[in-house]
Amino acid sequence: MTRAIRVYLWFVATIAFTSVNAKDLNDLGKIKLKALSGDPSSQLRLGFHYSTANENLVEAFFWYEKAAKAGEPSAYHYVAKAYATGRGTPQNLELAKVWYEKAALKGSATAMAKLGDLISVEHGINTDDALAHAWYALAVEHGETAWTERRDRLAKGMSEETLELALERVEEIKGKILPPKERRPTLPSPTKKRGEYHFQTGKKYFGDLKDGLPHGYGSIQSLDGERFFGEFEKGIPYGYGTHFSSRGFIIFSGLWEGDKAIAGDSPQARLRATLKSP
Q1: 88: buried, middle or exposed (CB in 10 Å: 19+, 13-18, 0-12)?
Q2: pTM
Q3: pLDDT in tens, 177-217
Q4: In whole angstroms, what is the distance from residue 39 CA to residue 169 CA?
Q5: Per-domain boundaries in the chain
Q6: Among 87, 133, 140, 201, whose CB has the most other CB atoms within 10 angstroms?
Q7: C-beta neighbour count of 170 within 10 angstroms
Q8: Which residues make beta-bridge pairs with 240?
């Protein structure tokens, strides 16, 4: 193979690679717009993206939590795991229990098992063996057979009275677990006041309003055609936002706090991350 042919093939491969990346960025931009408008499935997809491909656990948790609070059952487990491990958000075992229970009651066997782990031992002290055993038993019953040994080991140290209580707990919980046909909830559709707001700089906003100011989800268009889609609080970007050029290219996408970029793919965010690092 001649050098000219190798250079040509390298050039073609480079163009193909760039095209794929450009398409992926455009697809990601579309998903973000849907996520910002409140679509839980898109929020969940962004959570997956930032926890795997991008490995930005703070943003992953941001989107998982949004999806979970919007009623997306699949997101409950990821929010609980983040609180349990302290990855992407400060560790909080009580909140981990809350979200694992939400996932468990939607039928997640893994969440049932993890809930058993959290309840059986907290700070090295046994708290509620009957309840922990009940969740382990339900997890195994729902297919998580890896927790069989933990269920049985816990049962060995329990009195007959506590075992009977555990069986009662199992029946109580079964009555709360939704059957498969009912596990996908109807998502809430809150009505918000929407309208326009004009900034002194000439920029025009349209979206959710509170007390006459941008608050919630909306978009800003500048005089030169640039647009910003994202969340606002008391008149300023606060939360997640994506900034597009007048030609539709993504300039910035990430988290905002106090009208400043704090996370995401932008020079401002990278600078703030560098300044915060030890």
Answers
A1: buried
A2: 0.61
A3: 866 655 554 444 444 577 889 888 888 988 888 888 988 77
A4: 36
A5: 3-182, 194-276
A6: 133
A7: 19
A8: 255
Length in residues, the chain: 278
| Closest C-alpha among 230, 216, 214, 194 to residue 33 | 230
* Secondary structure (DSSP) of 61-128: HHHHHHHHHTT-HHHHHHHHHHHHHTSSS---HHHHHHHHHHHHHTT-HHHHHHHHHHHH-BTTB---
> What distances in angstroms separate CA 213 from CA 192, 198, 200, 223, one per listed residue?
13, 10, 13, 20
The Cα–Cα gap between 74 and 67 comes to: 9
Let me know: does 50 contact 59? Beta carbons within 8 Å: yes
Residue of 144, 71, 136 whose CA lies nearest to 106: 71
3-state secondary structure of 129: helix
Rounded Cα gap, residues 112 and 105, in angstroms: 8
CA dihedral sign, ordered 188, 193, 194, 197:
negative
Strand partners, 252: 243
Helices 109-120, 93-105: axis angle to 10 degrees equals: 150
pLDDT single digits (tens) 103-142: 999 888 889 999 999 998 654 444 588 999 999 999 988 8
User: What is residue 24's three-state secondary structure?
Assistant: helix
Q: In what order do the strands lie in the sheet with 213-221?
A: 194-198, 204-210, 213-221, 227-233, 236-244, 250-257, 260-264
Distance in angstroms (rounded) separating the CA atoms of residues 241 and 231: 6
Return d(Cα 213, Cα 270) in angstroms, integer. Answer: 29
